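Lab notebook, page 48
Experiment: co-folding of the full assembly
Goal: obtain a model of how the components sit together before planning crosslinking
Operator: M.T.
Materials (sequences as entered):
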Amino acid sequence: MDAITVTDLTKRYDKVLAVDAIAFAAPRGATIGLLGGNGAGKTTTIAMLLGLLLPTAGHIRVLGHDMAKDRFAALARMNFSSPYIALPARLTVEENLRVYGHLYNVERMDRRIAELAEELDLGALLDRPAGQLSAGQKTRVALAKALINTPDVLLLDEPTASLDPDTGDLVRTWLERYRTRTGCTILLASHNMAEVERMCSLVLMMKQGRIVDRGSPDELLARYGRDDMEEVFLDIARDRKHAGPAR
Amino acid sequence: MIDTHRAATGGSAAIASLRRIWGLVYRHIALYRRSWPRLLELAYWPVLNMCIWGFTASFLTGRLGNAAMLAGAAIMGGVLLWEVTLRGQMGMAIGFLEEVWSRNLGHVFVSPLRPWELIAALLVLSILRMLAGVVPAALLAIWLFAFNLFDLGPILVLFAMNMIAMGWWVALGVVSLILRHGSGAEPLAWGVLFGLAPFSAVFYPVSVLPAAVQPIALALPAAHVFEGMRGILLDGTVAYGHLAAATGLNILWLGAASALFAYQFHQARVRGALLSIGE
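Observation: model returned without errors.
Model output:
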């Protein structure tokens, strides 16, 4: 059974078609990459998956729940991280995690916070206000918040943005380990092509609100005759005629 | 493997709901307990208002005698009960605005928190803020001006409940407008009740108002509460009709404000405003 099923998903703002009848399925335990340039429709798609935004048409099922009718049952088993949505700056890291622990009804909260602090190297930060952290530390704290309920579906918007290569690699390794250990499904929007190539088993290439190509990183590299995903991304973004996609 | 989360989360639906409400209340308590300017602000304006109006009433009593003493009592009672509405309204609206200012709404609304649980948390915050503001002012009135609002007796509880309920529906209207218009509607959180004050008959009876605006006053629960309060202070009679009118009007206004909030919340999800509301 797929963790996420999206059918004919469409979002229109007046005359702007932000997402145009996209469809995809994310198998349980897979990491799916959502790629595309600015304005391609990635954030809109994620917002609809999270129930923040109502689709104009189409259906979303997450963990068997229809997001139009039963989104709270799914949301309890999902979580989300984005560097573009902040956590309350004056609260300490631990207070922030406690707030979300309560919102997600986490039992044995002290133990869960201690686990996350150890795994994401947050021990020294727990007593510090979230607003006083560096960008990289904030990203790790946002990730801890996203994992507080041990989600079955994790939506990540640029999870390693602002991280130095070493910390970025640690986070990627940790996410892969978490997915392997829990069977979590990860949907990842990223502009880091190496990250996508490393983590994702399926990549959805979006442009102007549509999924214009899809496949595993190896399939896409072969299809476009390229050595890395960045070149594939540029081929699609700039309509360059290379090997060309097989739709 | 998928069952991992069930070991981490659990409990009955009612307890889970209470925990989510407590989660948001805890977020604000954590914020206030380390911010003395925020704590000071809670009591600052109610105490300041009580001082200004209390000394004014004392002066009039000293110059004009017994009649002015009764008027002074009505004024101080008016100040305190109006603060119940004002602090209740601000507590709820500012509680919501704190989420907007910290750009945290996106995280809050992708959690399993239901919209009604958000409102319930804001109501709790509103009561806490109201108590933190009005209780010091009421104690000051006893100490400095020998005016004890609690002398009104048990009916004071009903008056206060009606006043804070009015604060809630006004705040729900403000939150709805913030959902619709974003930060542009922020000033309403501070100013909207001052616009209703002239019609609320805080310091004077409704009959003083021009005939054309009296229907506006009578549509507001506050006007009925203050008429009732003055009835007790000046005549010693409890006007249950006014109390019933205030309660009925509050139920109507709360229903209307809740419908407006539900509509604007839905529209915010249509427009995608929950992600960008602080911008």
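Interpretation: Chain B touches chain A at residues 1-2, 4-5, 7-11, 15-16, 19-20, 22-24, 26-27, 30-31, 34-35, 98, 102-104, 106-114, 266, 269-272, 274-275 (CB under 8 Å).
Next step: discuss with group before ordering constructs.
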